[in-house]
Design brief:
Radius of gyration: 14 Å
Structural class: mainly alpha
Oligomer: single chain
């Protein structure tokens, strides 16, 4: 929803501890949305920047958003999957 708040804690923990289940539930690679420090990995190093965002001290930390190409690819996969189901 574009806002980092308490609602984001459980999904962040799920992405960190069980990335496959996060992807199953949310349909997006957890690294794309959980790599808070932008080092290319979702790991324990992202916890502190996430906490800073929660408490409002992380103004300089950008939340990574999926790129247009990633969104296009996900959309294409969803369409292909929909055709197979139908």
């Amino acid at each position: 929803d574009g806002v980092v708040d308490a609602v984001d804690v459980a999904p962040f923990v799920l992405a960190l501890t069980n990335p496959g289940e996060y992807q199953n539930q949310h349909g997006i690679d957890p690294v794309l949305v959980g790599d808070i420090n932008n080092d290319g990995a979702l790991d324990a190093v992202d916890v502190q920047p996430f906490v800073q965002l929660l408490v409002g001290g992380g103004g300089a930390v950008a939340i990574p958003e999926p790129g247009s190409l990633a969104l296009l690819g996900l959309g294409g996969l969803a369409l292909l999957r929909r055709k197979r189901v139908a």
